[in-house]
Amino acid sequence: xxxxxxxxxxxxxxxxxxxxxxxxxxxxxxxxxxxxxxxxxxxxxxxxxxxxxxxxxxxxxxxxxxxxxxxxxxxxxxxxxxxxxxxxxxxxxxxxxxxxxxxxxxxxxxxxxxxxxxxxxxxxxxxxxxxxxxxxxxxxxxxxxxxxxxxxxxxxxxxxxxxxxxxxxxxxxxxxxxxxxxxxxxxx
Length: 188
Hints:
It comes from Xanthomonas hyacinthi. The protein is an alpha+beta fold.
């Protein structure tokens, strides 16, 4: 189940807001320009489905976003706990960074933890199956797929290098819970 916790940037152990209600999550994130939606597949998806089948199942929503935002590329990424580069892939975006285009992800299966740093607050969003999150370009954030990642996500891009992370050099991400601790509601 999706979850949003909001913290003051100085108190990673005391959430100011904590909800698993999709409408409440969307309303809070909308205040900072982040889109959060729940999608349903147009057709069933089988385990191990090819990327083309995954995209076909969500074609209506994909086409809507592409038309509204001008995305040039849409792909599917799938990470499993036995992926040989899972540790390297996890570390890649664990530190605070931003992108020069919106980061838009739809979770077809599994989950991941997006954490945003906006106006002195930290927004910790656990995204699960059927969640779409759109983080505006320039928003400081980090992403944690956990030590045993398991997710399939549809990604949307405007530019080929727009997904490249530009790191801030701060240590704020280390002061907040990693995915496995956040699931248990623990502080770092």
